[in-house]
Amino acid sequence: MIYPHDFEQRIGFAQIRDTVSLLCSTDTGRQHVRDAAFTTDFPTLARILGETAEMRDILTAEGDYPGGHYTDINTFLRRLRIENTYLDPAQLVDLQRALEQIGLLTGFFRRGDERGDATSRLYPLLGERTATVEDFTLLHREIGRLIDPESGLVRDHASPELARLRQAQYEKASQADKRLQAILRQAQAAGWVEAGSEVSVRDGRTVIPVAAVNKRKIKGLVHDESATGRTAYIEPIEVVELNNELRELANEERREIVRILTAFADRLRPELPALLRAGDLLTDLDFIEAKARYAVQTDSGLPELRNEATLHLHQARHPLLEAALKREQKAIVPLDLTLTAEKYILLISGPNAGGKSVCLKTAGLLQYMLQCGWLVPAESDSRMGIFDSLFIDIGDQQSLDNDLSTYSSHLVNMKTVLRSADERSLVLIDEFGSGTEPGTGGAIAEAVLQRLEERHVRGIITTHYANLKYYAAGAAGIANGAMAFDLQNIRPLFRLEMGRPGSSFAFEIARKVGLPEEIVQAAREKIGAAQANAEKHIREAARDKRYWESKRERIRQAEKNIDRTAAQYELQLSEIQTEKAKILNEARAEAERLLGEANRRIERTIREIRESQAERERTREVRGEFDAFRTLIAGSETAALPTSEADDPIARKMKQLREREQRRKERKAQRAAAEETDESTAPEKPAKPKEIEVGFHVRIKGQQAAGEVLALQGSGKATVAFGHVTTVVDKSRLEIVSHAEYKKLQRKSGSSFPMASTAAESYDTSKKRLNFKQQLDIRGMRAAEALQSVEAFVDEAIMLGFPQVTILHGKGTGALKEEVRRYLRTVPLVVSATDEHEEFGGAGITVVRLDVG
Questions:
Q1: Which residues contact 10 (CB under 8 A, 6 or more apart)?
Q2: What is the pLDDT of residue 389?
Q3: What is the pTM of this model?
Q4: Are 635 and 591 in contact (CB under 8 A)?
C-alpha cells in the first residue's frame, strides 16, 4: 500500500521518472519508465536491481558495449501478423540495423570471462536475458540483399523483373531527355524561350518553361503556369508518348517492389515470434540502460538487500537536492540513518531549516526508488529491506472541497496509518502534532506514537514537541535523533546525529535575525526555568558530543600515525635482524679463515724450529712472529664477535624497539579506558560563582593558560595577568578556575599559550608583536606535527590580539587542509576559516579570522 495517492509527487520521484524517460531511445522504453511500479516481490526486485547494477558496471568499465541507441522494431513487426501486409524499405532498414545490434549484444553477453570459461559470465543476469535470443545472421544478410541501407531503396537486382524495368526506365528517360534538350535549344534559338532556361518537372512530366505570349508556337500540353501568368510549362508533343511509357514503367516497378516486399514478409512471418522477443529485449535494455545512466550521473549503487523490514543508510544523498546544489556549486551533506529491530522508530528534532524534512524525504525517496527498481545514491555498505507499505504525512493538505483544515488533514492521515500500518510498514511523518494548540496536539501525537511503537511500525518522524522527545528517551523501540547545529556561528550543519534529542535553538536564532533582546529575555522567562534548563542541557550535550567527536578523531589520527611509525619500526627491526645474521655469518666465515691460517702458521713454525736445529736466535724470531700473529687473531675475533648482549649495539637497538612498542601499547590501552570513562559518565562541574571579582583565577574559554583578575572595568571588561603579560579581556570570554586547578596549571612546564612562560623568564608583548609573523607554513609536515604548530600559532595570535592570520598548507590531496579545518572548528575564538582569494593562493591557504575583542 502506498499512501497518499500523490506519494511520488510529495517525495520527488515523479521528477526522477521524467529525467530517466529522457535517457530512453524508444517510446516503449519510456513507457517502461512510466509503468515501473512499487513491488514487494523480493526475488523479482533482486533481479531487477541486479540487472541495473550490471548495466551500470558495463557503462563505467566496458568501452565496447554495443548499446546507446535502440530501435523499437515491434511497433511495425506486429503488423506482419495480418496476411498480405509488408514492411516498407525504411522499416526494413531499421529492422536490419536492429538485427545487427541484437547480434552484437548477444555476442557481448555470451562471451566468457578472461579465463575463457563460457559458463562464468561477467554479467550473468543480463547474459540470461540474451540466452534464448536466436541468431538472425541469415535474415540480416537477406535484408541487405534486398535493401540498400544508404539510400533506403530496394536494390535493382532484388529480382530479374525489377532489374529489367529499371533498365527500361533508364533508356526511355535518356531518350526523352535528349529529345527535350533538342526542342529547348530550338525554342531558345527562335526566341520563344529565354536564354538560360532549363527543363523542369510538373506533375511528374518533363516540361519546358515558355513565355506565355509564345506558348502557341510550341505544340504540346500545357501542364502549369507561373504565379504571374507570364510563364507556361509545356510538354512538347514529341515527348508525350515517351513520358507515358516512363509512367507505365514506374507503375510496373512499384507493383514489382510490392510483390518483392510481400514475398519477403511471408518469409519473415514464421520467424515473427522470435523477432518480437528480440524486439522486447531491445526495449528492455533501453529501459535498463536509462536507469543505469541515471545511476552513473547520481553516483548510485546497489545496497545490501534484505528480505526484512530494515533500513540502514550510509552516506545517503537526495538526488534532486544534490543536483540543485551542484548547480549552485555547493556540496550536499550525506545522511547516516538506521532503523533496526530494536530501535524501529526514529524521532528527529532540531532547529527550523536544519534539514529534518530533508532527512525524512531522503529516506522515503530512496526506499521507494529501491522498490521500484532504481539504484540509490548511497554507499554500497548500506542495508535496505523490503516494506509492504509506505505512508507519508508531509506538507499542508488542507482542502476547501472536503472542508479539511491543516490539522484535520493530519488527523485523517493518522487515522489511515493507525488502521493500515503494521511491522512491515514505513511511516514518514513531518512536524508530528503541529497545526493545533501545542498542549493538545502534543498529547495526541504522543498517544499516536505510543500506538505505533506497540505495533512495531517502522517510522521516521520529525517534531519540535518536548514531550515526544521525553517519551522517546524512555521508550524501548524509539531512538532520538538530532540535526546538528553550530551554536558558535548560529547556523545549521544539516547532519543527523543519532542517539540524542535536538534543541530548536529558538532563542539563538531569534537573536541572529535581530529580534530585540528584551523580547528574547521575556520569552525565556515565560517558558519557565524547567523548559529553559532542558533546552540548555540539550545544547550542552550537543556541544560536548561535538567536542568528544573532534577529540576522538584527533586521537584516531594520532593512533594511525603511531601505527604507521610502529610498522616502520618493525620493518627496521626486520632489516636489523637480517643485517645481524649477515654480519654473524661473515664473522663465522672470517673466524674459520683465521683458524685455518693459524693452523698453517703453527705447522710452519714447528717445521722451521725443527729445521733450524734448535738454534736459539732463530727459534726466538719464529716464536715472536707467531705471538704477533696470535695477537692479530685475538683482536679480529673481539671485533667480529661481541661477547655479550650489553656489548652488542644491534642487540641494544632491538631491545629498545621492543620496550618502545610495549610502552606504546600500554599508553593506547590507558587512553581507550579513559575515553570510555569520559563518555559513560559525565564529570560533575564544580560550583563556580556567577560573577568574576578581583583576585579570582580565570582563563579564556577554550584556552589552557590561567591568570589572575587584577581589576574590573565598568564596560564589562577585566584586567587579567597571565604570568608577566597583562591584558584587558571581555568578562563574557572568561571562565573561573579553582585554586587547585590554577596551582596545577602553574606547575606545568608548558602552556597552551606560548607567552605563559615561567617566572624566571620575561616576556615583552610589544617586541613579540613586532616579531610575530601572521602566516604559518606547514607544507611537508605530518598531520600530528602540523596540528601542534597550528595550535601554538593560533593561541599566540589570540594572545597578541591579531584579528586575522593565514595558514599555508598547500592543495595536494586536501587531507592536511581538512585536519587543520577540523581543529580550527573546535577553537571557540575562531570566527571563520575560509579559502584565500584565488589570485593569492586559493584552496592552498586558509584565512583564519579571530575574535580578539
A1: 4, 392, 394, 395
A2: 93
A3: 0.59
A4: no
